[in-house]
Specification:
Strand content: 5-15%
Order of helices and strands: HHHHEEHHEHEHHEEHHH
Number of helices: 12
CATH architecture of the largest domain: 3-Layer(aba) Sandwich
Strand order of the largest sheet: 1-3-2-4-6-5
Bound molecules: uracil
Number of strands: 6
CATH superfamily of the largest domain: Uracil-DNA glycosylase-like domain
Radius of gyration: 22 Å
Length: 278
């Protein structure tokens, strides 16, 4: 059965069981459900059409600024890249489930760029990366380093919230193939921003960005490279929310001290001592 017909069938079944429980007719008619189905179909086709137009996936030679960001010869600006990414339907299941694409935020000329794994529910609702609890912690880390949130750049490997089974809350990890499909957008963002230092937040971001599958204990704390840009992998702020010990906080902070040193930023005595046992 086609997924829409299946959803329609299940919804109708649910209404019928409500009807049994209440002893009266449910409010939604089959016609209303059919209308819902065709509206959803129309929205998905229109998204697909928009992207086709933007990315010129026709037989015509694509306009230079409208191709997929696979070739280093493209002349993207951050704005044209953002516009194209916002209507991306390369992962049709994510295009159908997302509220919006979460492109990235911050200074397009930032010297420091943070890369997370994927938007969660808060980010999907607001269209901005790292705005939930983990995001608030990331903002505190950024500010403790002496930056403001809008002086750095924050993005994710995956630009859409990974879809969840109906009725379940929470987030799932992006799949490797979803990250690989989405990676050209991030690569182009990095190429345009040209940060002096990249920070990958967590093992999933390290896998998506660097292809690294080693465990975090081996990855963090040493400099790696993404296309010649010094890259540090550190724990994801969500990990720190789950493990609030001083030692784990200190590990992330030591990583951030390495970043400050690499950027030649001044570090105060007070900053050096954060999260050390007293
Ligand atoms: N976690 C991420 O990796 N990215 C976000 O944008 C939010 C939470």
């Amino acid at each position: 059965m086609d997924p829409f017909d299946k959803a329609l069938h299940l919804t109708r079944e649910a209404f019928l069981s409500i009807q049994e429980g209440l002893g009266k007719k449910p409010d939604a008619s089959l016609q209303a459900l059919e209308k819902l189905k065709s509206m959803t179909r129309r929205r998905i086709s229109s998204l697909a059409r928009q992207q086709q137009q933007l990315l010129s996936v026709s037989d015509q030679p694509p306009a230079p600024h409208l191709k997929l960001p696979d070739s280093p010869l493209e002349q993207w600006t951050m704005d044209s890249l953002r516009k194209a990414a916002l209507v991306c339907v390369k992962c049709s299941h994510l295009a159908a489930s997302r509220t919006q694409v979460v492109f990235g935020v911050g200074n397009p000329k930032a010297e420091l760029m943070f890369v997370g794994e994927a938007p969660g529910a808060d980010e999907d609702a607001q269209g901005e990366p790292f705005v939930g609890r983990a995001g608030q912690l990331l903002t505190r880390i950024i500010e403790t380093m002496g930056f403001t949130r809008d002086s750095v750049y924050i993005g994710n490997v995956l630009k859409c919230r990974p879809d969840m089974p109906p009725g379940s809350s929470g987030n799932r990890k992006p799949r490797s193939e979803e990250m690989a499909t989405c990676l050209p957008w991030l690569r182009e963002q990095i190429r345009l921003i040209r940060p002096r230092v990249l920070v990958a937040l967590g093992a999933t971001a390290a896998e998506g960005l660097l292809g690294e599958t080693r465990p975090m204990r081996e990855l963090r704390g040493t400099w790696l490279e993404y296309e010649k840009t010094p890259t540090l992998v550190t724990y994801h702020p969500a990990y720190l929310l789950r493990n609030q010990s001083l030692q784990e906080k200190r590990k992330v902070w030591e990583d951030m001290l390495l970043v400050l040193e690499k950027l030649g930023r001044p570090i105060s005595k007070k900053q050096r001592r954060y999260f050390l046992p007293t």
